[in-house]
Amino acid sequence: MSDENILFQPIKKFCRRNVASCEPGDSVFKVAGVMRDRKISSMIVCENNNPLGILTDRDLRNKVVSQGLDAKTVTARDI
Question: How many CB atoms lie within 10 A of CB 75?
């Protein structure tokens, strides 16, 4: 097998050191903008550098957009 095979590549080649995160009080409008700009589909919600959960594009679609809620007033904590 070739050393170029993906199975033989170190995991660090595929991982990012800068994990995207937001704070519980951040609006989902802000979170969605960061997700769009970084071309990612989820963000870790952290408070005082402690992870509380994860917010995904599916959460935004199902819990904000499809419910007709205002993304500028709904926060990550609300989701």
Answer: 19
Domains of the chain: residue spans and CATH:
18-78 (3.90.1280.20)
Per-residue DSSP letter, 27: B
The pTM of the full predicted model, rounded to 2 decimals, is 0.75
Q: Among 52, 28, 32, 51, which Cα is nearest to 41's? A: 32
Convert the pLDDT of each residue in 41-57 to its tens digit: 999 999 998 999 999 99
CA distances from 41 to 24, 33, 47, 48 (A): 17, 11, 20, 23
